Amino acid sequence: MPRKIYKTLPSDYAVCILEECPMAETCLHVLALKKLQKKETYMRLINPQKCTTSNTCKYYRDSRKVTYAFGFTNFQQRMYPAQYQIFMRTLIKKFGRNSYFERRRGETALPPKEQEIVLAALRKAGVKEDMEFDRYQEQINYFD
């Protein structure tokens, strides 16, 4: 199933009630509490006993936008056939066949971590030139 990019806050997004946390101003879970409590009757809550009010909270989610990439259909045209075979096999091994083609066509958004995986596969295949994905979009990273 293709990864969904949320343009607005999902109504079932987990919230955090530790507003005294030093990272609360930039944590999506605390910011979600403020927005969702105005419109939702029920909310998913991160257990306050599992959260910490330090810089090492494992539930911290930065509210800055990240750049998602979509598609890499132009990569094949700029590689030798042997390079493309190595590139494609590497990514199919990582993502699976259907998921590879969904990502290639741009149906599934590539968060920064997956963009690095694709670029590492290019280097593994011996591609030296820089390649750009088909398109980019900045969004808040709620789940990746």
Summarize the structure in words:
The chain has 4 helices and 2 strands; from the N terminus they run H-E-H-H-H-E. The protein has 144 residues and is mainly alpha-helical. It folds into 2 domains: 1-63, no CATH class; 65-140. A two-stranded antiparallel ribbon has the order 1-2. Helix 2 packs antiparallel against helix 4. The protein is elongated. It starts with 27 loop residues before the first helix and ends with a strand. The model has no long low-confidence stretch (mean pLDDT 91).
Helices and strands in order, then pairings?
Layout: H1 28-39, E1 65-70, H2 81-95, H3 97-105, H4 112-124, E2 135-140
Antiparallel strand pairs: 1-2
Helix pairs in contact: 2-3, 2-4
Summarize the structure.
The protein is mainly alpha-helical. It has helices at residues 28-39, 81-95, 97-105, 112-124; strands at 65-70, 135-140. It has two domains: 1-63, no CATH class; 65-140.
Name the features:
single chain; elongated; two-stranded antiparallel sheet; 2 domains; 144 residues; mainly alpha
Figure out the total of helices. Answer: 4
Give helix and strand order, one letter per element, not per position. Answer: HEHHHE
Number of strands: 2
Average pLDDT score: 91
Question: How far is it from the N-terminal to the C-terminal residue, by CA?
Answer: 15 Å
Strand content: 5-15%
Radius of gyration: 19 Å
